[in-house]
Amino acid sequence: MQTIESTTFRAEIDEHGAQLTHLYNKEEGFDYIWNNDLWPKHAPVLFPAIGRSANDAYLIDGKEYEMLQHGFVADQDFTVFENTGSCLVLNLENNEGTQRYFPFAFKFEVIFTLTDGGLTLHFNVVNKEKDRDFSFSLGSHPAFNVPINHEGSFTDYQVDFEPAGLALKQFEIVKTPNPYRDGKVIDLTAADGSHIDLNYPMFEDGLVIVENKEVTGVMLSSKKSSHSIHLNLEDFRYICLWTKEGAQAPFLCLEPFAGLPDVADQEVELMEKEANTKLMAGQSKAFEYTITLK
Predict the structure, then answer these.
(1) Rounded alpha-carbon distances, angstroms, from residue 202 to 2, 20, 158, 189, 273
(2) What does pTM read for this prediction?
(3) Measuring CA to CA, which residue among 44, 46, 47 is closest to residue 34?
(4) What is the DSSP secondary-structure string of 138-155?
(5) Mean pLDDT score of the chain, rounded to an integer?
(6) Among candidates 123, 145, 149, 146, which has minimal Cα distance to 136?
(7) DSSP codes, 10-59
């Protein structure tokens, strides 16, 4: 386990999966990140797939490869490249375990930087192949305690998208019994413009993936709390909201997505996967977002 600190916050990150496990407000002594066996994860990194792949697989030149839900990096041990005390750099390179799912040479770097304003997560994907291109999805899955610091209850909180005034859309989800997209985009009926008052029924179908490309940020807050959580989304095309359905769970995941779960029963070639990022041989691609905390 690695620790980084600023004057205001302390973060703990597990090298296994490069997973943020705690994000403490040092002055008031509470944790923003979920820790409970009701859902035993905290903030998984999603690569090179998001959600379920159709038939839990995909194709490369017609050959089928297995793909785990949310990819495989959550089960990989990252190497600590550097820990300065406020910045942690973790690296993962292709190995025998990754080749089973993703038969490419790659480097995947995750950088956590903690300041007095919050935590920045920077992801860098490198295609180390000499003459083969590949594509990938990348996501981050942080689960935040709601209520924050036990102030209010889950349904006292709201999510506001930026900019204001959007007509929010979401991808329709079907359960087979696992959640997949059905290819349709529908109105986000829980929203009033760019605003959502949190409620549990909105999660009955599972995850809520907001489609709007205009969204640049999202804020979680409550009139009953002095604290809030803000994510900027400029590098991520989609934002997903999720809490464990049917559990009245006191947490909410705010998940920046660069990619999408598959449409049910539509197993496709890797380079044709909808919303994937294509990366040419020898090239790299970076993504970044900041969790600003109050």
Answers:
(1) 36, 27, 13, 9, 28
(2) 0.96
(3) 44
(4) EEE--EEESSGGG-S-GG
(5) 96
(6) 123
(7) EEEEETBTTEEEEEEETTTTEESB--BTTB--S--EEBS--SPPGGGEEE
Closest CA to 250 of 292, 210, 220: 220
Tens of pLDDT along 218-251? 999 999 999 999 999 999 999 999 999 889 999 9
CATH number at residue 207: 2.70.98.10
Q: What is the pLDDT of residues 26-53, one digit of tens each?
A: 999 999 999 999 999 999 999 999 999 9
Structure tokens at 122: 């920077």
Number of other residues whose CB lies within 10 A of the CB of residue 167? 11
The domain of 281 spans: 2-293
Tokens 């409620």 sit on residue = 199
Task: Specify the length of the chain in residues.
Answer: 294
Tally the domains of the chain.
Answer: 1
Q: Which residues pair with 59 in a beta bridge?
A: 64, 269
188, two tokens:
């986000």
- The C-alpha atoms of residue 120 and residue 171 are separated, in whole angstroms, by 27
In 94-178, which ranges are E strands? 106-114, 118-127, 134-136, 138-140, 143-145, 157-162, 169-175
Q: What is the DSSP string of 184-244?
A: EEEE-TTEETTEEE--SGGGTTS-EEE--TT--EEEEEETT-S--EEEE-TT-SEEEEE--
Q: Which residues pair with 16 in a beta bridge?
A: 77
